[in-house]
Specification:
single chain; alpha/beta; Spore Coat Polysaccharide Biosynthesis Protein SpsA, Chain A; 14 strands; Galactosyl_T_C; glycosyltransferase; Nucleotide-diphossugar_trans
Length: 276
């Protein structure tokens, strides 16, 4: 079955280059790599030749917001039209381990797990040394995320709990499962919420959330804000959409942190507004 990797990107060309280098080391190389360039006209010039098919799709912003949900949908649609049966989504910051694609492909084609939403462990890298990361030593540098499952290689852990732990940094699924979920809800604009909504849709369809131990990705270091104060308006807007769709609040840790900092306030009806 044809396997396609889908990556959405805005800048971070050096991170994308290292991801490409990681794909070159894959025991199971991709058949196609779809890169969706969000408001990034210079991305193609930053890419080196690869021994597999590659499609770069350009997508404009949605006003001031990066269209993350729409970009993933466009990437998946491009891959499926090209004949892909297995879709592997990798964040531009993620470098695949040599076993990632093969492990995802095996799980996506196994009759037991072929309908599941597949996730692999994501380990975080420290800042790179002056001469950059050495792909051969990433495993010794990276630390698994403490709040998410990291089963050992060779382990496939199927569950129908913990859907809130899904995130879109690294995941995979079969073409049929993608169609069943219906892709990402494009009402989410900018940062936050669209991946939580995607997992909630999977849960509502009784799709198992399956953690694939050998599908390890390494997340390249970059500065972050905690909480992401630069995205407060996106988070509040997207959280409000999620609440309207599912009757519960996502990203509660961020919302509480924003409230403590006086960036948002909670109204009497329980909704949030940004304090200007």
């Amino acid at each position: 079955m044809m396997l396609a990797v889908v990556t959405i990107a805005h800048g971070r060309h050096d991170h994308l280059a290292l991801q490409q280098a990681g794909l070159r080391r894959s025991h199971r190389p991709p058949d196609l790599h779809v890169v969706v360039a969000m408001d990034d006209g210079g991305l193609e010039q930053a890419l080196e030749p690869v021994p597999w098919r590659r499609r770069v799709v350009h997508l404009a912003r949605s006003g001031p917001h990066l269209p993350l949900a729409r970009a993933r949908n466009v990437g998946a649609r491009t891959a499926i039209t090209a004949g892909a049966g297995t879709l592997v989504f990798l964040d531009v910051d993620c470098v695949p381990s040599p076993t990632l694609l093969g492990a995802y492909d095996e799980a996506a084609t196994d009759p037991v797990t072929s309908r599941d939403l597949l996730c692999g462990p994501v380990s975080y890298l420290p800042p790179p040394p002056p001469d950059g990361y050495d792909l051969a030593t990433l495993d010794s540098l990276a630390e698994p995320h403490a709040a998410r499952p990291a089963p050992p290689a060779g382990t496939v852990d199927r569950t129908r709990r913990g859907y809130e732990l899904f995130w879109s940094l690294s995941f995979a699924l079969g073409r049929g499962t993608w169609s069943e979920i219906g892709g990402f809800h494009e009402g989410y604009l900018g940062y936050g919420g669209e991946d939580t909504d995607f997992a909630k849709s999977a849960e509502s369809l009784d799709l198992a959330l399956t953690w694939v131990g050998a599908a390890t990705a390494f997340h390249q270091h970059h500065p972050v804000s905690s909480p992401p104060v630069e995205h407060v308006e996106d988070v509040v807007r997207n959280a409000t959409l999620f609440h309207a769709r599912w009757g519960q609040w996502p990203m509660t840790g961020w919302l509480s942190a924003f409230e403590e900092r006086g960036l948002v306030e909670r109204r009497g009806d329980g909704t949030y507004r940004v304090v200007r």
